[in-house]
Write a structure and sequence with these properties.
Length: about 140
Amino acid sequence: MKFITILLISCFIISSSTVSPETYIGKWKIEGGSIIEIYKEGDTFFGKIDKRADNPLCNLNGLDNKNPNKELQKRPLLGMIILDQLQYNDGVLSDGTIYNADSGKIYDVKVWINSDDKDICYIRAYKSFLFKTFKATRVTH
């Protein structure tokens, strides 16, 4: 009986600390300096490039040079949607993709916020079992 009580209390604490969908909306500065704005249309979340890093590693002219589609290589990076078709489920954004303009590749993506500090977000791009996780901090000004 004691175990069941502890289990119920744990479930209540976990469910009460869930991050709401609205918590994701806003601007997030990624390690390296770029800022992504996450927004919602209907039940779907997107993220667009709001600001590029001060010292970008690639695409120095601000265009989507690495895109495998030659017709898209002249489009500007600013304002480009890089997080696409994310769905909110159990406190996490997933089931969407992220476009890496540095390589021109698209990856599956998962985005989550630390429930202990809602100003920190993690973006994990992955293919199969390989992944890379980026930390982002909420921009408040």
